[in-house]
Amino acid sequence: MNTNRILAALLAGLAAGAQAQVTPDEAKQLGSTLTQVGATKAANKEGTIPAYTGGLTKAPPGFKAGSGVWADPFKDEAPLMRIDAKNWQQHADKLSEGQKELFKKNPGFYMDVYPSHRTGAMPEEVLAKTVRNATTCKTTKGGLGVDQACRGGIPFPIAKTGNEMMWNQQLRYKADTTTRSSRSWVVDSSGKAVMTSQQQTFEETPYYHADLDGRDDQMYWRTYSVTSAPIRKAGEVTGLMDFLDPTQKPRRAWSYAPGQRRIKLAPEFSYDTPVASMGGVTLFDELFVFSGQMDRFDFKLVGKKEMYVPYNAYKLYFGCGVEEQFKEKYPNPACWRWELHRTWVVEATLKQGFRHAYAKRTYYIDEDTYSAMLYDAYDRSGQLYRSIFNSMIQLYDVNAPYSVKNVIFDFNKGMYALVNDGLVGGYGVVTKPRSNRDLNPETIVAKETAR
């Protein structure tokens, strides 16, 4: 790589990051015309997106706390319409390029569109700190890092740059600590579905922990997964930690393989390294649609746009059995629920002098939860390479938006992967974080390999 070009790109990024802060007058919008997290409170002019009234905070009938299954509050609703290969062009302005590509290539693909419900809700403490952050939170290192003082709330409820919006996505509230059993499946070009991994995953967000219990103040996310299938990978353990200033503290990744019987650092678990447990169909910086450093791309906040996104997807998470979820070229549309929501649009363009599998990426980020719902990635020739549909549910008993189940399409290979196919009873929220000692790699491996 050309050192001078890389330095010039970094200096340009620093200049671009020097944006004006939110003024007190601008911040007064939060809680009035804007919600406390910065979403437009009012309905759209057509009334097809309702006004925000606080989200879903009450459990519907049939919910059993601790069961790992969240009852569907909208199970009796009927679709408003169906978008298919015959009429999708009438709705093209609200579709991602990935959605359009599926309609073009697959006559049987369809999207059932249901009434929109703005169910996203967060704890009052998180909302209060989000409002505080509006006038006090800052990015560092030209947008590549975030000030530690932002902890506890969405950092930029009135975001003005692409980097700020992507930090909102990475630091969004999704419950302090969660566990889940999950499976990942890859459907190859012949239509054959193969389970590439079955894992038990632990995830925590120290960014939202009031008592860090000895954690590094810079750490904002930590996760590890233990593989139980396929047999050849059983006993493998991988872990990731991300930090608020990744220029100073890059992602710390590690892995353990039973055959080698030692823990190794894994710096390759970042950027465009393919994720083996997902069949290589997705990259490490596509986990949760985007994760990791932002130094290789220029991120531009384009604006807000109404899009059909997979929302309140309780049927997909808990209602469809494994065999129901797959079609040859796309997931079973009968398991999916689509709603019209406002999203922030961020375009990412590869910086000159840097390398990556993609030259351009587009993210559609939900205004109420900051979860990236849709995503398109393009190769160096400008052709659509991959797309992701990321589905959301509200964990109404703990006031946490949750989005871990997604589908990834590789249009070059004619394949797709369904990620985090939760086992029955496989989702859980842990109310008390584990100690820092219990979460060091040596302790994790010793505990998991003793089972």
Automatic annotation (TrEMBL):
Segment forming the signal sequence: 1-20
Keyword check for tRNA processing, yes or no. no
Against Pfam families, the record matches this protein to: DUF1329
Instruction: Tell me the InterPro entries matching this sequence.
Output: DUF1329 (IPR010752)
Q: Establish whether keyword Protein transport is in the entry.
A: no
Record's keyword terms, sorted: Signal
What is the name of the protein in this document? DUF1329 domain-containing protein
**What is the protein's species of origin?**
Massilia jejuensis
